Amino acid sequence: MSNEKKSILVINGPNMNLLGIRQPEIYGNTDYVDLEDMITAEAERLGVTVSFFQSNHEGDLVDAIQQAYFDKVDGILINPGAYTHTSIALLDAVKSVGIPTVEVHISDPDAREEFRHVSYIRDACIGSIRGRGVQGYLAGLKLLAE
Q1: What's the pTM value of the predicted model, to 2 decimals?
Q2: Residue 67: closest CA among 5, 11, 129
Q3: Which residues are catalytic?
Q4: Do the beta carbons of residue 75 and residue 8 sit within 8 Å?
Q5: Pairwise CA distance, residues 13 & 119, whole Å
Q6: Distance between first and last Cα of the chain
Q7: pLDDT digits over 83-95, tens only?
Q8: What is the sign, positive or negative, of the torsion defined by CA atoms of 119, 83, 127, 60?
Q9: Closest CA to 75 of 58, 94, 91, 62
Q10: How far apart are CA 69 and CA 12, in angstroms?
């Protein structure tokens, strides 16, 4: 058995860089840097390493998922943002790499507009955490660490 720590890649999609600014009544007041700091602290507590990637561009997110395969990442925690509801490309990328992936959403898309009820990527994920605020990221990280 290896002593190497599990490595988790946290991917955030469009508009997540505006966390704390964008619709705080839905997404809260935690900004993106604070989110990364919170996740990093939890990763240390769980004994895993964590890295981050954020992009507003679908192809860049696909590239990050594919690169995770070559980097031998052990798990992906992804908030695809609006691409949740539109991107078959992200679904195909996660299926292609075979890395355990957890979908996370700060709000609960199922409690919002009808078009947000569809998640293409969910079919390729081992878990989906919705509506738990930024704390949902910690739950997803714990799921991947186990």
Answers
A1: 0.92
A2: 11
A3: 27, 105
A4: yes
A5: 14
A6: 15
A7: 999 999 999 999 9
A8: positive
A9: 94
A10: 17
